[in-house]
Amino acid sequence: MTMINKNDIFEMIEEEDVKFVRLQFVDLFGELKNIAITSGQIHKALEGKVKVDAFHIEGMHDLGYDSVYLKPDLSTFAILPWRPQHGKVARLLCDLMDMQGNMIEESPRYILRKVMMDAEKRGYSFDIHPNCEFFLFLNDENGHATTHTGESAQYLDVAPLDKGENARRDLILTLEEMGFEVESSHHEMTPGQHAVDFKSAQGVRMADQILTFRTTIRTIAVRHGMHATFMPKPRTDLPGSAMRVTISIYKDGKNIMNGINGERFSKEALSCAAGMLEHQKAMAAFANPIVNSYKRLKAKFFAPSELFWSTTDYYAPVLLEVGDQDNVYMEWKMPDGASNPYLMLAQAVAVCLEAIGKEMTPPGENEKLGMLPATLMESVNAFKEDRFLRSICGESYADAYIRGKEAEWERYSREVTDWELQEYLRRI
Protein backbone atom coordinates (compact mmCIF):
# COMPACT_ATOMS: atom_id res chain seq x y z
CA MET A 1 0.00 0.00 0.00
CA THR A 2 1.31 3.45 -0.91
CA MET A 3 2.19 5.52 2.15
CA ILE A 4 0.31 8.81 2.39
CA ASN A 5 1.69 11.80 4.28
CA LYS A 6 0.13 15.07 5.37
CA ASN A 7 1.29 16.93 2.27
CA ASP A 8 -0.46 14.34 0.12
CA ILE A 9 -3.69 15.03 2.00
CA PHE A 10 -3.32 18.78 1.56
CA GLU A 11 -2.68 18.34 -2.18
CA MET A 12 -5.65 16.00 -2.70
CA ILE A 13 -7.97 18.37 -0.85
CA GLU A 14 -6.88 21.26 -3.06
CA GLU A 15 -6.84 19.32 -6.34
CA GLU A 16 -10.23 17.68 -5.72
CA ASP A 17 -11.90 20.88 -4.45
CA VAL A 18 -12.77 19.24 -1.12
CA LYS A 19 -14.77 21.58 1.11
CA PHE A 20 -15.68 19.25 3.98
CA VAL A 21 -13.93 16.33 5.65
CA ARG A 22 -15.80 13.83 7.80
CA LEU A 23 -13.69 12.52 10.68
CA GLN A 24 -15.17 9.08 11.34
CA PHE A 25 -14.71 6.68 14.24
CA VAL A 26 -16.59 3.87 15.96
CA ASP A 27 -17.99 3.77 19.47
CA LEU A 28 -17.44 0.84 21.83
CA PHE A 29 -20.16 -1.18 20.07
CA GLY A 30 -18.95 -0.60 16.52
CA GLU A 31 -21.44 2.12 15.56
CA LEU A 32 -19.99 4.62 13.09
CA LYS A 33 -19.84 8.22 14.32
CA ASN A 34 -18.43 11.34 12.71
CA ILE A 35 -17.81 15.04 12.96
CA ALA A 36 -17.57 17.24 9.85
CA ILE A 37 -14.94 19.93 9.52
CA THR A 38 -14.22 22.38 6.73
CA SER A 39 -11.12 21.84 4.65
CA GLY A 40 -9.64 24.92 6.33
CA GLN A 41 -9.45 22.95 9.58
CA ILE A 42 -7.60 19.98 8.10
CA HIS A 43 -4.20 21.07 9.49
CA LYS A 44 -5.65 21.02 12.99
CA ALA A 45 -7.27 17.64 12.37
CA LEU A 46 -4.09 16.02 11.11
CA GLU A 47 -2.30 17.16 14.25
CA GLY A 48 -4.86 15.25 16.30
CA LYS A 49 -6.29 18.41 17.81
CA VAL A 50 -9.98 17.98 16.95
CA LYS A 51 -11.84 17.20 20.16
CA VAL A 52 -15.31 15.70 20.49
CA ASP A 53 -17.63 15.48 23.46
CA ALA A 54 -17.65 11.83 24.52
CA PHE A 55 -20.35 12.16 27.17
CA HIS A 56 -23.10 10.93 24.84
CA ILE A 57 -21.00 8.36 22.96
CA GLU A 58 -22.27 5.02 24.21
CA GLY A 59 -19.99 3.51 26.82
CA MET A 60 -17.35 6.24 26.81
CA HIS A 61 -18.62 8.23 29.78
CA ASP A 62 -18.88 5.05 31.85
CA LEU A 63 -15.16 4.54 31.21
CA GLY A 64 -14.37 8.03 32.48
CA TYR A 65 -13.96 9.82 29.13
CA ASP A 66 -15.81 13.12 28.90
CA SER A 67 -13.93 14.23 25.77
CA VAL A 68 -11.65 12.52 23.26
CA TYR A 69 -9.31 13.65 20.51
CA LEU A 70 -9.50 12.19 17.00
CA LYS A 71 -6.30 10.95 15.38
CA PRO A 72 -6.87 10.48 11.62
CA ASP A 73 -5.39 7.49 9.83
CA LEU A 74 -4.04 9.13 6.68
CA SER A 75 -4.26 5.91 4.67
CA THR A 76 -8.07 6.00 4.93
CA PHE A 77 -8.53 9.32 3.11
CA ALA A 78 -11.22 8.94 0.45
CA ILE A 79 -13.59 11.17 -1.50
CA LEU A 80 -17.24 10.26 -0.91
CA PRO A 81 -18.50 9.83 -4.51
CA TRP A 82 -22.18 10.24 -3.61
CA ARG A 83 -21.65 13.75 -2.24
CA PRO A 84 -21.61 16.91 -4.44
CA GLN A 85 -18.85 16.97 -7.05
CA HIS A 86 -18.40 20.72 -6.68
CA GLY A 87 -17.27 21.30 -3.15
CA LYS A 88 -16.57 17.64 -2.50
CA VAL A 89 -16.72 15.75 0.78
CA ALA A 90 -13.96 13.42 1.95
CA ARG A 91 -13.58 11.16 4.95
CA LEU A 92 -10.81 10.01 7.27
CA LEU A 93 -11.17 7.15 9.74
CA CYS A 94 -9.77 8.00 13.14
CA ASP A 95 -8.38 6.43 16.27
CA LEU A 96 -9.27 7.89 19.66
CA MET A 97 -6.90 9.62 22.08
CA ASP A 98 -7.39 10.82 25.63
CA MET A 99 -6.72 14.36 26.84
CA GLN A 100 -3.03 13.51 27.40
CA GLY A 101 -2.60 12.33 23.83
CA ASN A 102 -2.49 8.62 24.67
CA MET A 103 -4.33 6.08 22.56
CA ILE A 104 -7.58 5.00 24.20
CA GLU A 105 -7.12 1.34 25.04
CA GLU A 106 -10.84 0.60 24.77
CA SER A 107 -11.13 1.83 21.17
CA PRO A 108 -12.17 -1.18 19.01
CA ARG A 109 -9.92 -0.08 16.15
CA TYR A 110 -6.94 0.20 18.48
CA ILE A 111 -7.67 -3.23 20.00
CA LEU A 112 -7.49 -4.78 16.52
CA ARG A 113 -4.36 -2.82 15.69
CA LYS A 114 -2.60 -4.20 18.79
CA VAL A 115 -3.56 -7.77 17.90
CA MET A 116 -2.27 -7.35 14.34
CA MET A 117 0.99 -5.87 15.68
CA ASP A 118 1.37 -8.95 17.89
CA ALA A 119 0.84 -11.19 14.86
CA GLU A 120 3.45 -9.24 12.91
CA LYS A 121 5.98 -9.56 15.75
CA ARG A 122 5.51 -13.32 15.62
CA GLY A 123 6.09 -13.28 11.87
CA TYR A 124 2.49 -13.97 10.82
CA SER A 125 0.21 -12.16 8.41
CA PHE A 126 -3.51 -12.85 8.09
CA ASP A 127 -5.38 -12.62 4.80
CA ILE A 128 -9.03 -11.98 5.61
CA HIS A 129 -11.81 -12.37 3.06
CA PRO A 130 -15.42 -11.60 4.05
CA ASN A 131 -18.61 -12.45 2.20
CA CYS A 132 -21.12 -9.76 3.16
CA GLU A 133 -24.84 -10.49 2.81
CA PHE A 134 -27.59 -7.90 3.12
CA PHE A 135 -31.20 -7.26 2.17
CA LEU A 136 -32.59 -4.53 -0.06
CA PHE A 137 -36.16 -3.73 0.96
CA LEU A 138 -38.59 -1.22 -0.53
CA ASN A 139 -39.53 2.05 1.12
CA ASP A 140 -43.20 2.99 1.40
CA GLU A 141 -44.78 6.11 -0.12
CA ASN A 142 -43.58 8.14 2.87
CA GLY A 143 -40.01 6.95 2.52
CA HIS A 144 -40.22 4.66 5.54
CA ALA A 145 -38.52 1.28 5.55
CA THR A 146 -40.59 -1.85 4.94
CA THR A 147 -39.69 -5.54 4.78
CA HIS A 148 -41.15 -5.95 1.28
CA THR A 149 -38.72 -6.93 -1.47
CA GLY A 150 -40.99 -6.38 -4.49
CA GLU A 151 -39.32 -9.30 -6.29
CA SER A 152 -39.13 -13.08 -6.50
CA ALA A 153 -35.48 -13.42 -7.55
CA GLN A 154 -33.34 -16.27 -6.27
CA TYR A 155 -29.70 -17.34 -6.44
CA LEU A 156 -27.71 -15.65 -9.23
CA ASP A 157 -30.85 -14.36 -10.96
CA VAL A 158 -30.64 -11.31 -13.22
CA ALA A 159 -32.87 -8.35 -14.03
CA PRO A 160 -35.79 -7.94 -14.35
CA LEU A 161 -36.21 -10.59 -11.63
CA ASP A 162 -33.39 -9.01 -9.64
CA LYS A 163 -34.77 -5.59 -8.67
CA GLY A 164 -31.57 -4.65 -6.86
CA GLU A 165 -29.22 -5.10 -9.80
CA ASN A 166 -28.84 -1.37 -10.50
CA ALA A 167 -28.28 -0.52 -6.84
CA ARG A 168 -25.68 -3.27 -6.58
CA ARG A 169 -23.90 -2.04 -9.71
CA ASP A 170 -23.81 1.52 -8.35
CA LEU A 171 -22.46 0.16 -5.08
CA ILE A 172 -19.57 -1.62 -6.76
CA LEU A 173 -18.66 1.37 -8.92
CA THR A 174 -18.78 3.64 -5.87
CA LEU A 175 -16.60 1.32 -3.81
CA GLU A 176 -14.05 1.12 -6.62
CA GLU A 177 -13.92 4.91 -6.77
CA MET A 178 -13.04 4.80 -3.08
CA GLY A 179 -10.18 2.38 -3.66
CA PHE A 180 -11.89 -0.93 -2.87
CA GLU A 181 -11.15 -4.10 -4.78
CA VAL A 182 -14.40 -6.03 -5.15
CA GLU A 183 -14.13 -9.58 -6.46
CA SER A 184 -17.80 -10.22 -7.21
CA SER A 185 -21.40 -9.47 -6.31
CA HIS A 186 -24.60 -11.39 -6.90
CA HIS A 187 -28.19 -11.98 -5.90
CA GLU A 188 -28.48 -14.48 -3.07
CA MET A 189 -30.86 -17.43 -2.59
CA THR A 190 -33.89 -15.51 -1.37
CA PRO A 191 -35.82 -12.45 -2.63
CA GLY A 192 -34.16 -9.16 -1.78
CA GLN A 193 -30.92 -10.67 -0.50
CA HIS A 194 -27.55 -9.81 -2.02
CA ALA A 195 -23.89 -10.63 -1.41
CA VAL A 196 -20.59 -8.88 -2.08
CA ASP A 197 -17.11 -10.43 -1.93
CA PHE A 198 -14.08 -8.22 -1.30
CA LYS A 199 -10.53 -9.04 -2.23
CA SER A 200 -8.70 -10.25 0.87
CA ALA A 201 -6.82 -7.74 3.02
CA GLN A 202 -5.08 -7.47 6.38
CA GLY A 203 -6.88 -6.90 9.68
CA VAL A 204 -7.40 -3.16 10.24
CA ARG A 205 -7.72 -2.40 6.55
CA MET A 206 -10.36 -5.10 6.12
CA ALA A 207 -12.33 -3.94 9.17
CA ASP A 208 -12.25 -0.40 7.77
CA GLN A 209 -13.54 -1.69 4.44
CA ILE A 210 -16.40 -3.59 6.06
CA LEU A 211 -17.43 -0.49 7.98
CA THR A 212 -17.26 1.70 4.87
CA PHE A 213 -19.13 -0.87 2.78
CA ARG A 214 -22.06 -0.89 5.19
CA THR A 215 -22.38 2.89 5.12
CA THR A 216 -22.02 3.04 1.34
CA ILE A 217 -24.73 0.52 0.47
CA ARG A 218 -27.18 2.19 2.86
CA THR A 219 -26.53 5.49 1.12
CA ILE A 220 -26.75 4.03 -2.41
CA ALA A 221 -29.97 2.15 -1.61
CA VAL A 222 -31.79 5.36 -0.68
CA ARG A 223 -31.05 6.74 -4.15
CA HIS A 224 -32.84 3.71 -5.61
CA GLY A 225 -35.94 4.01 -3.42
CA MET A 226 -34.81 1.18 -1.17
CA HIS A 227 -33.16 0.68 2.16
CA ALA A 228 -30.33 -1.72 2.88
CA THR A 229 -30.16 -3.66 6.12
CA PHE A 230 -27.58 -5.97 7.64
CA MET A 231 -30.05 -7.11 10.29
CA PRO A 232 -29.29 -10.83 10.59
CA LYS A 233 -32.90 -12.04 10.45
CA PRO A 234 -35.30 -9.30 9.27
CA ARG A 235 -38.10 -11.72 8.30
CA THR A 236 -39.22 -14.99 9.83
CA ASP A 237 -39.98 -16.56 6.45
CA LEU A 238 -36.66 -15.77 4.77
CA PRO A 239 -33.11 -16.97 5.44
CA GLY A 240 -30.92 -14.62 7.44
CA SER A 241 -27.88 -12.65 6.37
CA ALA A 242 -24.40 -13.74 7.41
CA MET A 243 -20.93 -12.30 7.04
CA ARG A 244 -18.82 -15.39 6.57
CA VAL A 245 -15.10 -14.79 6.98
CA THR A 246 -12.29 -16.84 5.47
CA ILE A 247 -8.81 -16.62 6.96
CA SER A 248 -5.45 -17.71 5.55
CA ILE A 249 -2.27 -17.36 7.61
CA TYR A 250 1.14 -16.69 6.08
CA LYS A 251 4.71 -16.76 7.37
CA ASP A 252 7.72 -15.92 5.23
CA GLY A 253 5.38 -15.64 2.25
CA LYS A 254 4.02 -19.18 2.62
CA ASN A 255 0.56 -20.32 3.65
CA ILE A 256 1.28 -22.16 6.89
CA MET A 257 -2.17 -23.78 6.85
CA ASN A 258 -1.22 -26.02 3.91
CA GLY A 259 -0.53 -29.63 4.78
CA ILE A 260 2.83 -31.33 4.32
CA ASN A 261 3.95 -34.93 3.87
CA GLY A 262 0.66 -35.91 2.29
CA GLU A 263 -1.53 -34.34 4.97
CA ARG A 264 -4.36 -32.07 3.81
CA PHE A 265 -3.95 -29.60 6.68
CA SER A 266 -0.98 -28.40 8.68
CA LYS A 267 -0.83 -28.66 12.45
CA GLU A 268 -1.27 -24.86 12.53
CA ALA A 269 -4.54 -25.11 10.58
CA LEU A 270 -5.84 -27.77 12.94
CA SER A 271 -4.75 -25.71 15.94
CA CYS A 272 -6.72 -22.73 14.62
CA ALA A 273 -9.82 -24.89 14.32
CA ALA A 274 -9.28 -26.11 17.89
CA GLY A 275 -8.90 -22.58 19.21
CA MET A 276 -11.99 -21.34 17.44
CA LEU A 277 -14.04 -24.16 18.96
CA GLU A 278 -12.55 -23.50 22.40
CA HIS A 279 -13.69 -19.87 22.41
CA GLN A 280 -16.65 -19.96 20.00
CA LYS A 281 -19.43 -19.50 22.54
CA ALA A 282 -17.80 -16.38 23.97
CA MET A 283 -16.83 -15.07 20.52
CA ALA A 284 -20.52 -15.13 19.58
CA ALA A 285 -21.05 -12.12 21.86
CA PHE A 286 -19.16 -10.11 19.22
CA ALA A 287 -19.75 -12.10 16.03
CA ASN A 288 -23.49 -12.19 16.81
CA PRO A 289 -23.92 -9.14 19.03
CA ILE A 290 -27.65 -8.40 18.98
CA VAL A 291 -30.84 -10.15 20.06
CA ASN A 292 -31.86 -10.75 16.45
CA SER A 293 -28.58 -12.52 15.62
CA TYR A 294 -29.73 -15.70 17.32
CA LYS A 295 -32.92 -15.92 15.28
CA ARG A 296 -30.72 -16.37 12.22
CA LEU A 297 -28.71 -19.10 13.95
CA LYS A 298 -31.83 -20.96 15.07
CA ALA A 299 -33.39 -20.87 11.60
CA LYS A 300 -30.86 -23.40 10.18
CA PHE A 301 -30.78 -21.91 6.68
CA PHE A 302 -27.09 -22.81 6.28
CA ALA A 303 -26.51 -21.21 9.69
CA PRO A 304 -24.58 -23.03 12.43
CA SER A 305 -26.27 -24.09 15.66
CA GLU A 306 -23.94 -26.86 16.91
CA LEU A 307 -20.29 -26.67 17.92
CA PHE A 308 -17.98 -28.71 15.66
CA TRP A 309 -15.52 -28.37 12.81
CA SER A 310 -15.72 -29.94 9.39
CA THR A 311 -14.37 -30.02 5.88
CA THR A 312 -17.70 -30.76 4.21
CA ASP A 313 -20.64 -29.91 6.51
CA TYR A 314 -21.82 -26.41 5.68
CA TYR A 315 -23.60 -26.15 9.02
CA ALA A 316 -20.31 -26.23 10.92
CA PRO A 317 -19.29 -22.89 12.46
CA VAL A 318 -15.66 -23.63 11.53
CA LEU A 319 -14.58 -25.27 8.26
CA LEU A 320 -11.15 -26.09 6.89
CA GLU A 321 -11.17 -26.03 3.11
CA VAL A 322 -8.77 -26.25 0.19
CA GLY A 323 -9.00 -23.44 -2.34
CA ASP A 324 -7.14 -22.35 -5.45
CA GLN A 325 -3.64 -23.79 -5.96
CA ASP A 326 -4.26 -26.14 -3.03
CA ASN A 327 -4.17 -23.26 -0.56
CA VAL A 328 -5.88 -24.09 2.72
CA TYR A 329 -8.09 -21.58 4.47
CA MET A 330 -10.43 -21.54 7.44
CA GLU A 331 -14.02 -20.41 6.97
CA TRP A 332 -15.76 -18.96 10.01
CA LYS A 333 -19.52 -19.00 9.51
CA MET A 334 -20.76 -17.45 12.73
CA PRO A 335 -20.42 -13.69 12.08
CA ASP A 336 -23.29 -11.56 10.84
CA GLY A 337 -23.61 -8.00 9.58
CA ALA A 338 -24.37 -6.59 13.03
CA SER A 339 -20.89 -7.50 14.25
CA ASN A 340 -18.28 -4.95 15.18
CA PRO A 341 -15.66 -5.81 12.53
CA TYR A 342 -12.75 -4.61 14.65
CA LEU A 343 -13.54 -6.73 17.71
CA MET A 344 -14.77 -9.69 15.69
CA LEU A 345 -11.53 -9.87 13.69
CA ALA A 346 -9.33 -9.07 16.70
CA GLN A 347 -10.72 -12.06 18.53
CA ALA A 348 -10.40 -14.43 15.57
CA VAL A 349 -6.76 -13.48 14.96
CA ALA A 350 -5.87 -13.58 18.66
CA VAL A 351 -7.51 -16.98 19.11
CA CYS A 352 -5.56 -18.40 16.16
CA LEU A 353 -2.30 -17.01 17.53
CA GLU A 354 -2.99 -18.51 20.95
CA ALA A 355 -3.95 -21.88 19.46
CA ILE A 356 -0.85 -22.06 17.27
CA GLY A 357 1.37 -21.11 20.21
CA LYS A 358 -0.18 -23.82 22.39
CA GLU A 359 -0.23 -26.37 19.55
CA MET A 360 -3.86 -27.08 20.31
CA THR A 361 -5.47 -30.18 18.80
CA PRO A 362 -9.11 -30.23 17.69
CA PRO A 363 -11.57 -33.06 18.35
CA GLY A 364 -12.40 -35.40 15.50
CA GLU A 365 -13.96 -33.93 12.38
CA ASN A 366 -17.75 -33.59 12.69
CA GLU A 367 -17.60 -34.52 16.40
CA LYS A 368 -20.38 -32.52 18.05
CA LEU A 369 -19.37 -30.67 21.22
CA GLY A 370 -22.79 -29.32 22.14
CA MET A 371 -24.97 -26.44 21.09
CA LEU A 372 -23.92 -22.90 20.27
CA PRO A 373 -25.53 -20.06 22.27
CA ALA A 374 -29.25 -19.75 21.59
CA THR A 375 -29.59 -16.19 22.90
CA LEU A 376 -27.53 -13.06 23.26
CA MET A 377 -27.30 -13.50 27.02
CA GLU A 378 -25.92 -17.02 26.67
CA SER A 379 -23.03 -15.69 24.61
CA VAL A 380 -22.50 -12.68 26.89
CA ASN A 381 -22.35 -14.98 29.91
CA ALA A 382 -19.81 -17.16 28.07
CA PHE A 383 -17.73 -14.05 27.37
CA LYS A 384 -17.83 -13.14 31.06
CA GLU A 385 -16.07 -16.43 31.84
CA ASP A 386 -13.54 -16.36 28.98
CA ARG A 387 -10.41 -14.87 30.53
CA PHE A 388 -8.42 -14.98 27.31
CA LEU A 389 -10.94 -13.01 25.24
CA ARG A 390 -11.40 -10.54 28.08
CA SER A 391 -7.65 -9.98 28.11
CA ILE A 392 -7.67 -9.27 24.37
CA CYS A 393 -10.34 -6.59 24.79
CA GLY A 394 -9.04 -5.33 28.13
CA GLU A 395 -10.97 -5.65 31.37
CA SER A 396 -12.40 -2.14 31.28
CA TYR A 397 -13.72 -2.64 27.74
CA ALA A 398 -15.05 -6.10 28.59
CA ASP A 399 -16.97 -4.80 31.60
CA ALA A 400 -18.42 -1.86 29.63
CA TYR A 401 -19.47 -4.16 26.79
CA ILE A 402 -21.14 -6.61 29.15
CA ARG A 403 -23.05 -3.80 30.87
CA GLY A 404 -24.24 -2.50 27.51
CA LYS A 405 -25.41 -5.90 26.31
CA GLU A 406 -27.13 -6.71 29.59
CA ALA A 407 -29.03 -3.43 29.28
CA GLU A 408 -29.97 -4.29 25.68
CA TRP A 409 -31.27 -7.70 26.78
CA GLU A 410 -33.26 -6.11 29.60
CA ARG A 411 -34.93 -3.70 27.15
CA TYR A 412 -35.81 -6.62 24.89
CA SER A 413 -37.14 -8.71 27.77
CA ARG A 414 -39.54 -5.95 28.81
CA GLU A 415 -40.94 -5.46 25.31
CA VAL A 416 -44.37 -6.86 24.42
CA THR A 417 -43.96 -8.22 20.88
CA ASP A 418 -46.44 -8.65 18.04
CA TRP A 419 -45.95 -12.41 18.33
CA GLU A 420 -47.12 -12.37 21.95
CA LEU A 421 -50.21 -10.36 21.05
CA GLN A 422 -51.10 -12.69 18.17
CA GLU A 423 -50.42 -15.81 20.25
CA TYR A 424 -52.13 -14.87 23.51
CA LEU A 425 -54.37 -11.79 23.32
CA ARG A 426 -57.57 -13.49 22.14
CA ARG A 427 -57.30 -16.81 23.97
CA ILE A 428 -56.04 -15.81 27.40
Question: How would you describe what is shown here?
Answer:
The chain has helices at about 5-15, 40-45, 110-120, 165-175, 205-225, 265-285, 295-300, 340-360, 375-385, 385-395, 395-415, 420-425; strands at about 20-25, 30-40, 50-55, 65-70, 80, 90-95, 125-140, 180-185, 195-200, 225-230, 245-250, 255, 310, 320, 330. It is an alpha+beta fold. The strands form two sheets. Strands 7, 8, 9, 10, 11, 12, 13, 14 and 15 form a nine-stranded mixed sheet that branches. Helix 9 (about 375-385) packs antiparallel against helix 11. The radius of gyration is 22 Å and the shape is globular. The termini are far apart.
Global mean pLDDT = 94
Structural category? alpha+beta
What's the number of extended β-strand segments?
15
Number of domains: 2
Q: How large a portion of the residues is in β-strands, by DSSP E?
A: 15-25%
Oligomer: single chain
H/E series: HEEHEEEEHEHEEHEEEHHEEEHHHHH
CATH class of the largest domain: Alpha Beta
Tell me the overall shape.
Answer: globular
Q: What is the H level of CATH, i.e. the homologous superfamily of the largest domain? A: Glutamine synthetase/guanido kinase, catalytic domain
Question: What is this structure, in a nutshell?
Answer:
By secondary structure, the protein is of the alpha+beta class. Helix content is 36%, strand content 21%.
